[in-house]
Design a protein that fits this description.
Helix content: 25-40%
Distance between the termini: 123 Å
Shape: globular
Structural class: alpha+beta
Radius of gyration: 35 Å
Strand content: 25-35%
Largest sheet: 7 strands, mixed
CATH superfamily of one domain: Nucleoside Triphosphate Pyrophosphohydrolase
Number of helices: 5
CATH architecture of one domain: Alpha-Beta Complex
Order of helices and strands: HHEEEEEEEHEEEHH
């Protein structure tokens, strides 16, 4: 009888020990397994959100809107091509869901140089200006130095090359000013404007078909010409006026 009582006491003791072990390790219980599964799901959900966030950042960096508001190209056909650009006839579904057809001029992009000599006056610096005949406009135009970016060429390298070729000048200090599209309704040319300071004179090396008259003109005079309508060139208007506005400068009376 005493033996049976001892065995029963041992069984009770073992049962109590098992319950204590289960309480210390909830993962081994039914409830613990639920918590473990939930933790796994939370971790998985968090990982998914992190991946989505990273994908969104990558898309933003590449120029694609995070919301996926991009056009879907159905077909694209080259209808004309020359050394400067090519003309494409595109069929596409626009971001709003509209199916459309567009004729677009694709261009490698251009650089514009606002070259300043501010050694004598920072408030009224001299600007490097060019005058040349533009057949498309059917007139002579006063403009800032500019030119096409060559395939594989960095914009800044292109700006330095164009300034040297057209004017002979080099510059010690370069800074991006603005980038814009001249006529985005049909022209895909992006124009990158650079500010060049600390000018050093040199010998110009223009292209064989270029006939360029180069002059240094005070900012106040360029602004006066703009006011009179004597400078209809878009890149010169936008670059000079933006620079004057950013610097808080205006035409001198």
């Amino acid at each position: 009888m005493a033996k049976k009582e001892k065995e029963k006491a041992a069984e009770v003791k073992a049962a109590k020990a098992g319950q204590a072990s289960a309480a210390a390790n909830p993962a081994n219980t039914k409830d613990g397994k639920g918590k473990k599964a939930k933790a796994g799901k939370d971790k998985k959900a968090k990982g998914g959100k992190d991946k989505k966030a990273k994908a969104g950042k990558a898309a933003k960096k590449s120029g694609v809107k995070a919301g996926g508001a991009t056009a879907q190209l159905i077909s694209s056909k080259v209808v004309f091509q020359c050394s400067q650009f090519k003309v494409l006839h595109d069929k596409l579904i626009e971001p709003g869901g509209f199916t459309n057809e567009r004729d677009v001029i694709r261009h490698n992009g251009s650089v514009v140089i606002l070259a300043l000599d501010n050694s004598k006056s920072k408030k009224n610096p001299w600007i490097v200006m060019e005058r040349q005949y533009r057949h498309a406009a059917k007139q002579f135009l006063w403009e800032l130095p500019a030119g096409k970016i060559e395939p594989g060429e960095e914009p800044l390298a292109g700006a330095k090359r164009e300034l040297a070729e057209e004017t002979g000048y080099s510059a010690k200090k370069w800074k991006p000013l603005v980038e814009y599209f001249a006529s985005p309704g049909f022209l895909g040319e992006a124009m990158k404007v650079f500010l060049a300071e600390g000018l050093v004179a040199g010998e110009a090396r223009p292209e064989a078909d270029e006939r360029i008259e180069m002059r240094l003109v005070k900012l106040s005079e360029v602004l006066r010409m703009i006011e009179k309508g004597a400078i209809p060139d878009g890149k010169t208007l936008s670059s000079v006026l933006l620079y004057a506005w950013l610097k808080g400068l205006g035409r001198k009376k």
